[in-house]
Amino acid sequence: MKPAKEIRVGNIIMVDGKPFIVLRSDVNGSSRTGFTYKWKMKNLLTNSPLENVFRGDDKFDVVVLDKKPVTYSYFADPLYVFMDAEYEQYEIEEENLGDALNYLKDGMECEAVFYDGKAISVELPTTIQRQIVYSEPAVKGNTSGNVLKEARIENAIESKQFIVQVPLFVSQDDMIEIDTRTNEYKKIVRN
User: Fold this and answer.
1) Distance between CA atoms of 117 and 44, rounded to whole angstroms?
2) Of the candidates 119, 112, 115, which has an alpha carbon nearest to the alpha carbon of residue 72?
3) For residue range 36-49, what is the model confidence (pLDDT) as tens digits?
4) Three-class SS state of 157
5) What is the C-alpha separation between 10 and 42, in angstroms, rounded?
6) Cα separations in angstroms, 91 against 57, 100, 158, 159, 160
7) CA distances (Å), 159 to each of 64, 130, 182, 190, in order?
8) Mean pLDDT, to the nearest integer, of 103-108?
9) For residue 180, how far is the Cα from the chain centroid?
10) Quick one: CA torsion of 138, 144, 145, 149, rounded to 10 degrees?
């Protein structure tokens, strides 16, 4: 059993004996009053949505699911299709992909997560490398301190282009490494 404060987006938990995937988590409160967690979830068996608020010390069973290495193949509206090494295809709904949509790229390797024999989501590697497709140039003299700017990274879905905060010295066409757990810039990649 895990307390609500340790549950993350993408975790599968049991609520009233039914498996739910946590799609979104909003935290409210303070250390003095205690934290509450408002979760948007989806029932894995019926696909019905549920929103509920839990206290930080409420406990849940986290379901451990089967995983398999796959690569992203293509978008077949409204499903995203992934393929394993035996050319078996798995279709996953957009709403189950969460932050993975920000980084999808043709041929990208990740792990499909299965519940009851059905692929329900994917897990990304902890770090990935992506090219900056657009970023404003740095302004001369604006380089003191820990100043960041926005940079758009490449991915497979034009409408889902993702913005990452990067240091001023990072330029368009640079390759950077990103932590997919926090969506934060880690370093520039030089060949």
Assistant:
1) 12
2) 112
3) 999 999 888 777 89
4) coil
5) 10
6) 35, 14, 20, 20, 19
7) 32, 17, 21, 28
8) 90
9) 7
10) -10
